[in-house]
Design brief:
Length: 413
């Protein structure tokens, strides 16, 4: 099988360089970039699949499913953000489409530009929240006074001003362009696959190296034709027909597959400040933290998706310094507890059961907990996809990484 990963990059100063080489497993569309090897070091250090090497895989089935058969995003097309939009305008684009991130189109690119010149990276709502959290207005308590001309309608104290009002009124968000902040935002790797790739290729990159989103590129036009997220891929595979064909794998328990039994569980107490949860997300490079009660039992989660709740809500800024339980109420999650099926699993549950739970609830991980409700591990979408797919040969990615090493060496000269 011909592995067809194109390349990955983030927005930064880009040198114009020709394709590096023909890779053993790749279409010859690899472009050296100052951040390439750094990005791959992040990929390799990210949460890899924890499933046992000897576990059965679904390679044959996944390799027979072309990416062209994958459903389009809910909008029916790829939603993009132009590089000359302000942060506020970009937030409005994401909010209207009900998505967390979107590819950034380089408005200065020529009509004949290749995909790596046409797209600058990903604009992510989580980055907007994190950028705001660094501002003095909301990073300190008590908050500095907000003038009457900046106050939210009906606000009587600084804490009454909403996060949404901050985003819509602060000069930083109204005047700073997307192209400018991509260099300071924690932009993730921008990974693109050709339309000729298969679901196996997507599952490998997402499952082995923890990529949350993959872009699908039309080789002839260099235009993105689809965006595939880990969550969407798991929902695609959760159909009864496909699950039935993967029975040798999905019929095994988490314990048998070595999932959810190890790894650090990042957590906050339900009475901790909301800002502490988002600080862990940003500093530990994780996508979710468990929320525990006073007895250490899991009662909910805070994830990157909650960034959208904060960024687009009318809740006062005080919610960031208030207890996590207040965020739960704002997100209509006040009834979540350990018996809620959307956040917990047991090591005796099958992988198929977890896949169905993830697909039905559209969550991105389940925390593994014992009868006492204390979380001991987590099974993420990365783990699930890693359990389903394995590199067909030991060197499937080897020459891809080797070529990136050559690119890094060339950059240092």
């Amino acid at each position: 099988m011909n592995f067809c990963l194109f390349a990955c990059h983030v927005a930064t100063d880009r040198a114009s360089t020709p394709p590096l080489t023909h890779l053993h497993h790749c279409i010859p569309l690899l472009y050296p970039h100052p951040c390439h090897v750094f990005i791959l070091s992040i990929i390799m250090a990210s949460e890899e699949s924890k499933s046992g090497a000897a576990a059965p895989k679904a390679n044959e089935l996944l390799g027979g499913l072309p990416l062209s058969a994958f459903p389009l995003p809910p909008a029916g097309k790829v939603v993009t953000v132009n590089s000359d939009l302000s942060i506020l305008e970009a937030v409005n684009v994401l909010t209207k489409a009900n998505i967390l991130a979107a590819p950034v189109v380089n408005v200065d690119a020529a009509a004949t530009a290749k995909w790596h010149e046409r797209y600058l990276g990903l604009f992510d709502m989580t980055d907007v929240v994190w950028a705001a959290l660094q501002m003095e207005e909301i990073s300190t308590a008590p908050l500095p006074a907000i003038g009457e001309d900046n106050a939210s309608p009906g606000a009587t104290t600084p804490f009454d001003a909403s996060f949404l009002h901050l985003v819509t009124s602060h000069a930083f968000f109204k005047t700073r362009k997307v192209a400018d902040v991509l260099r300071t935002f924690r932009t993730g790797p921008f990974v693109a696959l050709a339309e000729s790739c298969t679901v196996l290729d997507a599952a490998l990159v997402m499952g082995k190296y923890g990529q949350h989103r993959l872009m699908v590129v039309d080789e002839s036009s260099s235009v993105l034709t689809n965006v595939i997220t880990q969550s969407a891929l798991v929902r695609f595979l959760a159909s009864k027909e496909l699950l039935g064909k993967m029975a040798p794998v999905v019929g095994k328990t988490l314990s048998e597959l070595g999932l959810g039994s190890s790894g650090k569980v990042y957590s906050v107490d339900i009475d901790d400040a909301v800002v502490s949860a988002f600080t862990i997300l940003a500093e530990q490079h994780v996508s979710a933290v468990a929320v525990l009660d006073g007895g250490g039992r899991i009662v909910g989660t805070i994830s990157n998706r909650d960034a959208r709740v904060i960024a687009t809500s009318q809740q006062p800024l005080a919610i960031l310094h208030g207890p996590v339980r207040s965020l739960f109420k704002a997100a209509a999650q006040s009834s979540v507890d350990i018996r809620h099926p959307s956040i917990s699993a047991s090591t005796t549950d099958t992988l198929g059961f977890v896949i169905e739970k993830l697909a039905a609830t559209r969550i991105h991980r389940v925390f593994v907990a014992g009868p006492d409700g204390v979380p001991t591990g987590v099974v993420s979408l990365t783990d699930v996809l890693g359990a389903l797919a394995a590199e067909p040969t030991p060197d499937y990615f080897a020459s891809f990484f080797a070529a990136r090493g050559v690119a890094e060496a060339a950059e240092k000269k």
